[in-house]
Each structure stands twice: as C-alpha cells, then as structure tokens.
Design a protein that fits this description.
Elements: E1 2-6, E2 12-16, H1 21-29, H2 34-43, H3 45-56, H4 70-83, E3 85-86, H5 89-92, H6 102-108, E4 110-111, H7 113-124, E5 133-138, E6 141-147, E7 166-169, E8 187-190, E9 192-196, H8 198-204, H9 216-224
Parallel strand pairs: 3-4
Antiparallel strand pairs: 1-2, 5-6, 5-8, 6-7, 8-9
Helix pairs in contact: 1-6, 2-7, 3-7, 4-7
Length: 227
C-alpha cells in the first residue's frame, strides 16, 4: 500500500507499507464489538509496524537524517488517518454496523468514525510513540482521547475532556486538537472506564450507539468504579 497525504501544517508525506493478503483475510474474519475492537487495535502488529515506519520516515522536504519532532509525528499520524475516506458501514459494507480491524481500514482505504478512531488509537498506543489512549463516545459518534500528559508541550493548553485526563482528537474532521463535535460526552474508556455520564446515556437512549448493547460493559464497569 502507498499512502500520500498533507498534514495540518502543510507538510507532504508519502509512506509505503506492505500488508499480506492472508493477514487481511484473517483480520476480516475476526468479529469485534466496540471494546474488543479498541483492544485489538492497540495490540495490532500491523499498527506497531506502521507506526515504526512512520517514525522512520520523513515528511517530504525534511532532512532524512534528522529525527522529526514529536509534534510533527503526531501531525503525520493524524494526517494519515484524515487522508482515508469517510464511509458509513451501510455505504462501504452494506451492513448497519461493522467494526473494521486496523488491517481492513488500511487496505480498504476508508472507514467510519469507529474504524478511523481505532486506527489512530492503534498507531498512537505503540511503543514508538507511546501515548496512553482512550476511545471517547458521543451520541452516534466516536473519537480518540490522548492522555494530556503525553501530548507534546505545544498542546499543553488544549482543553481536556470531561474527567480532566484526556484530550480529544477527531478522526473524521480536521479540528484542532482538543476540539470535537458539539455533543455530550457519554463515556471515555482508556485503561478501564475513565469517565461516564449515566444521565446523558439515559437521555440519549437508543442514540447512544447504533447497538447500545455492545457497550453495556461500560455501564457495568462504571457500577464497580469507586465514586
């Protein structure tokens, strides 16, 4: 696969990344819910290798011998995800809800908010970058959370999500880090439940996610969390 994109600072990138056909077929045979999709992305060997390739690459015009600043690598990773086509599951898969693996999203070159979120989570969670990540649930929408202490210093003043630990990164629209769709945050799930708004979940009802039962684990974990 060859990916070419321009990041938010106008840097042009090009990255070549092989994915075995057998690996794609095996990934497509996996079945995931929201939580297992999140964990699978963080554990993905292809996400690990992709991140290492990105770290060892250079933005076009940058010196190949110079290590890129962390903020540039973050912009590059976000830019790669933004370069992929947004497509609903109904459009791309003919199904009301489908969780793509990292491998599927990379080969298909498209995905919905969950698929693109998992891809960015998979990249940022790898040792080569090493961020603590979370998935952030809004009504009918998902985005990435990154631990505020892990972000480059340039984002020190970025607003945090409810709970005060994570900063939002949108994967389907190009918003500044920390800004996101104007909807209530229902839950933030990183290393377990980081934040949950039970009243907002009740208010949104079936709009919580297209299949709210897949995310019941969040509510169950919340009940066990000390308050």
């Amino acid at each position: 696969m060859t990916y070419e994109w321009t990041d938010r600072s106008g840097r042009e990138w090009r990255l070549e990344f092989p994915i075995e056909r057998s690996a794609y077929r095996e990934a497509a045979d996996e079945t995931h819910g929201y939580l297992s999709g999140f964990e699978a992305a963080k554990a993905s060997a292809h996400a690990k290798r992709l991140t290492e390739t990105l770290v060892n690459a250079s933005a076009m015009g940058e010196s190949a011998r110079r290590s890129l600043p962390e903020s540039v690598l973050l912009d590059g990773a976000i830019g790669l995800v933004h370069s992929l086509e947004y497509a609903t599951d109904a459009e791309s898969m003919g199904a009301p809800d489908y969780i793509r693996t990292v491998e599927e999203t990379l080969v298909d070159g498209c995905g919905d908010c969950e698929d693109l979120t998992y891809l960015l989570v998979g990249m940022l969670s790898q040792p080569a970058i090493g961020y603590r990540t979370a998935m952030v649930i809004l009504p009918g929408h998902m985005l990435v959370g990154v631990h505020r202490d892990d972000l480059p210093a340039v984002y020190a003043d970025a607003p945090t999500l409810p709970g005060g630990t994570y900063v939002a990164i949108e994967c389907t629209t190009s918003r500044p880090i920390g800004e996101f769709k104007d909807e209530p945050v229902l839950a933030v799930y990183g290393d377990g439940v980081e934040y949950i708004d039970q009243s907002a979940i009740t208010d949104t009802g079936e709009e919580f996610l297209r299949d709210p039962t897949q995310f019941q684990t969040i509510a169950d974990a919340s009940a066990k969390r000390p308050h």
